[in-house]
Amino acid sequence: MGLTVSQNTVEEAVAAKSHRPDEEPDPAPEGRESGVGDEAPGWLSQVPYFLVLSTMSAGIVIVAAAHFKRGPALIAGALMMAAVFRTLLPQEKLGMLAVRSRWVDIITLTGLAVLLIVLAWVAPQLSQ
């Protein structure tokens, strides 16, 4: 005795299963598979940190080259960039820039940047 199933019976069974009220709807938009391109790679959250770190490193190299006005100004710019990133970016996109609470980080970074700008302003220019 063989079991024969018509195409209509299969389609009705699939339609009934896909429209059950106790199941959650598929969160993936139409035309796109779930899990494909939903999340950025983990290293991408470190890009703001590496931008700040590279700018700060450039400032330290400039200070080492005896430019005591330009170097601290560049380091202050890196700190202000970190404060802007901390203000505008969400927590999961910050990487290692998120150390303490948002406002403590912003106040600390901005305060250090202002102090370095004052230092760059009052530092003597060495004649070469």
UniProtKB/TrEMBL annotation:
**Keyword set, alphabetical order:** Membrane, Transmembrane, Transmembrane helix
Pfam families reported for this sequence: DUF3017
Reading the lineage from the top rank, the first entry is Bacteria
Positions of the region Disordered? 1-40
Bilayer-crossing regions: 47-66, 73-91, 103-123
- Polar residues biased stretches: 1-10
The name of this protein is DUF3017 domain-containing protein
Annotated source species: Streptomonospora halophila
Highest classification ranks of the organism: Bacteria, Bacillati, Actinomycetota, Actinomycetes, Streptosporangiales
